[in-house]
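Worked example (supplementary).
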Amino acid sequence: METQTLIYLFVGASFALYIGIAVWSRAGSTKDFYVAGGGVNPVVNGMATAADWMSAASFLSMAGLIAFMGYDASVYLMGWTGGYVMLALLLAPYLRKFGQFTVPDFIGTRYYSSTARVVAVICLIFISFTYIAGQMRGVGIVFSQFLQVEITMGVIIGMGIVFVYAVLGGMKGITYTQVAQYCVLIFAYLVPAFFISFMLTDNPIPQLGLGSALNDGSGMSVLQKLDRSLVELGFNQYTAGSKSMIDMFCITMALMVGTAGLPHVIVRFFTVPKASDARLSAGWALIFIALLYTTAPAVGAFGIYNFVNQTNEVEYAEAPSFFTSWEDAGLIAFQDKNDDGVMQYRAGNAFAGAPDFTGERGDWGERVIANAPVDDNANEIYVDRDIMVLANPEIAGLPAWVIALMAAGGLAAALSTAAGLLLVISSSVSHDLLKNTFRPTISAKGELLAARLAASAAILVAGYLGIYPPGWVAQVVAFAFGLAASSLFPAIFMGIFFKAMNKQGAIAGMISGLVFTFGYIAYFKLVNPAANVADNWLFGISPEGIGVIGMLINFGVAIAVASVTARTPDDIRELVDSIRVPRGAGDAQSH
Amino acid sequence: MGNRDSDGNSPGNTGPDEGAHTQSGKGGLKAPKATQTDQSAPQKAEKLAAQRAYWRENIRLLIGLMVIWFACSFGAGIVLRDFLDQFYLGGYPLGFWFAQQGSIYIFIALIFFYVVRMKQIERKYDLDD
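After joint prediction of all chains, the assembly is encoded as:
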């Protein structure tokens, strides 16, 4: 069968599956809508959490980042998994014992203040919208790449699918669709990785293959060979980094703490029956996540290895078909600086910025680029990092059905995360803003309707952000982690572990952490991007890692303010005592 | 929101300074199981003592595990990487392996160890769910 037909088949079948599950698991009550009834099995919840967590960025971009950054990309691998240790040990069981529906719920009750609740809602909406814009964009890219529809149309189709199962099913619908989406995405990710690992090293397990010898008779391991050939081409050694140690440290920490503070991840632990299940579920979630995250370094390394082998010093006329098809898509470009018709892949940018195609063909049949060449290097190839995962099966010459599988997997990753984000946005509006702050008299039915309306509105906003993205996808996501690390995480953590933390301290801490981090990121990413170089950074910490400083400011301000203001009331101290012990979660759940 | 008093704490027993990290209470070292006794005051005191002892053990365990969490990722994967890279695990330089593979496996082990150990501690103090 044609690749294109297979892609339509796979994507169509997976969409039908998601909608089928949504119809089967409609939400009947607010509890169904917010926390899937509170009775989800910890293993099932772990799987749903993994799908919720692994976004378009994890599926599509991460291996590409690893391929082109080598060791430096370890910040993502450790940062996006280490946060689960913090979740399981420091937050999840206590939040589950607390037993409400949302993160602002906890903050508002623990700090006995609607101001704290509203501040938390603002943080949450900010974090979730920056994150969701990236997901809708990912949906658009997959559609335009594989299904040959415009990005705008792709985003609209994606919005339609999410609408059906998020608005009808709420958390209950989302949970079970996410389980299906996890299966689709992990299968799509692992199959080509097995093939490629086996082709290069005779070992089908990618985690082992990356540490094995190549089967090309050179006797070298994959990493040795990669180090050597990249250094020959003028790149850094693959296994050595170029980021400063303090920056590596801070980015990793910001991503870890940010992960633990992301509302759409935390809220998944409200859905299991008991406090101890929350811990167990976080463990399962990390196993399911690690399946992809330990495979990604292999996918990245094999990808760059194959890419260099198949393009460098190859005549354009003989270029592999993946090269020309991604060139047609505008994500690869060849600029023949020395006019020899042979592609040289070297360190450095071939030309500044994204390729600006003139629409003509050059002497060798390549698409002509209007960009002025950069003269201080001999690199002639431009390649967009994000194509690595999607192009990998083609680069390795895998069968068409594997390529079709990748399309379905990428969509599953983007849609599952988008749905989880939409849900926390809608429940914070209907539950925290309406029910608990501004319209306490609202009926349960009215609240459910409000939740559905809020979800619909959030989908429209997310779609708009996907079609007109406010910035480059990855840089938008960096916002979300820094903001979560500097605002929500400290407030929740201190709510559990410091009884002395009071309302004034928590509010002052959240606001100062958020303002500092937002200001720093906005200055370097939006206001004055030209100044975004290491020399100008505070302590040499890039905007990606600044959430750590924001977090420290939050802790410092909160503790200072709390020490000079009123003592935490006794009933709140009792509440903290009660969430610290697991017994009695069943009671908490029934309200 | 009827989730506050499920543990039957008496307000009178809530002292001013049982902050988590600087727990100084000496009363509950024996950590007896809350059993029979028909009078409610001693029972409550006992239960509170059990809760404090439970929380202290939890904090100790947490600190130990977070130290390992920090050591394998920030320690082995970042700070000590250059030193560790002189050793090899198969074809992996060791520091690189910790950063891209090893720390993730250790993270999983930490969570499951905590799950098992906490269950034991909760049973010991009769506070499990």
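Two points are worth noting when inspecting this output. Chain A touches chain B through 69 residues (CB under 8 Å). The longest strand of chain A covers residues 357-361.
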